[in-house]
Amino acid sequence: METLQRTANRGSISTGFDIDNSLKFEPDNSEYLGKTPTSLGNRRTFTISMWIKRTEIGVDSYLMEAGDGDYNQSDRTILKFDSSDKIRFGGGSAYQRITNRVFRDTSAWYHIVMAVDTTDSTAANRLKLYVNGVQETSFGTSSDPSQNFQYAFCKDDEHTVGYNHTDNVSYYPGYMSEVILIDGQQLDPTSFGEFDEDSGIWKPINVSGLSFGTNGFYLDFKDASNLGNDASGGTDFTQYNITSIDQATDTPTNNFCTLNPLWAYAGEATVNNGATTATGVDAAWNGSKATMGVSRGKWYWEVRYSSDAAYTGLQTDGEDNISASGSLAHVQDTSIAFNGNGKYITEINGSTTSVTGQTALEIGSGAVQGFALDLDSGTKTIKVIRADGVTLTVNLTDSLAEREVFPFVAVYQSYVINYNFGGYTTNTISSAASDANGYGTFEYAPPSGYYALCTKNLAEYG
């Protein structure tokens, strides 16, 4: 089991500045943004800033690229995660930085700043990489550019966000927010963020007053009808396979729960679509837990089944119930599991209780169920809610009620289950209901007193 890195931004109840939207990128749909400037900018001095939340690890993932297709120092420049989950900036084999540190936390937002000034007389100052407000100084590969060297960013060649356009590979899987290129200035991260006085968390600030320069841009993803809009006033990016449905409310100032590919079992389900969809692999049960666990509060989320060969429910914080190859995560002392075909399963001291024929669970393929978890009342319960209001209430077993619990999924073969924790979903939403704090976008209105699993709500109720 990978050890999660806990340095990324997790949001807070009050940040002073809120970001409303992000953009979800999905490699399976070949989603990216691109444009080609019509003039030359400053290729020696520029700054890239972006907030990102990864949803897949161990894959070559391009955050931004500029160039005309030649893989050398000045004609092509990239910023990406390599397949070892390290950050890489540069062109060919020289004039680049590759971190020693890996970045595998899919539960949180990272802020990345790449600040370039090749005119600086001090070679070590020409490339500066910052993550969450702190400069990276440990690199497996570190090659300083020659003085006045020109990179491909700000050149009149294609610039893409979320894609390696020169090789037609390596789409980015995850969310992006506040994507910025500053042409003509090497800026510190304090131009884009600050440390919270109370929590010490690195958080965004308002950047609308910055000067973006000739070929700079600012993607805020606020306009669902034009997600390539350059809010700095420049030419908009073209959307490739991106539509309004790809806009999300999972942001650096309010981080939502998703499925976590680091917590997987029995071969690991395929987790994609902003880490809200799980698909089974081979003739086996496999799946994943969610990124956020809770031990108090009242919480709400939704799921949509593609078949009855999928279970969703709760598991505890222990890793033993998901690590053993071939084990069934939905038949454990530390779980309770439901499917859409009138069945739920619990197990106490090795004795399995399997209950069928529950009306609230019978919804059929493609229908949505709501889940309302109550950890505050004397008897801790989880409610399953159907569209017509029919509800099943199940008491949590002691092994669940006494520990931190996580939503989880178990799915068989190639079947699919879609989650909606409120920040993004592939589910078709007709009512766009939110919780009482205005967070989340759900098909059904959350019951009174129940809230979306996001950092602002967790800070208040969790």
Question: Top keywords for this entry?
Answer:
single chain, 462 residues, mainly beta, Jelly Rolls, 2 domains, eight-stranded antiparallel beta sheet, 3 helices, 33 strands, 36% strand, disordered N terminus
Quick summary of this structure?
The protein has 462 residues and is mainly beta. It has three helices and 33 strands.
The description of the largest β-sheet is:
8 strands, antiparallel
Return the CATH class of the largest domain: Mainly Beta
**Name of the CATH architecture of the largest domain:** Sandwich
Report how far the terminal alpha carbons are from each other.
Answer: 26 Å
Task: Specify the helix fraction band.
Answer: under 10%
Average pLDDT, rounded to a whole number, is: 89
Number of strands: 33
Low-confidence spans: pLDDT under 50, at least 5 residues? 1-13, 322-326
How many separate structural domains? Answer: 2
**Count of DSSP H/I helices:** 3
Radius of gyration: 23 Å
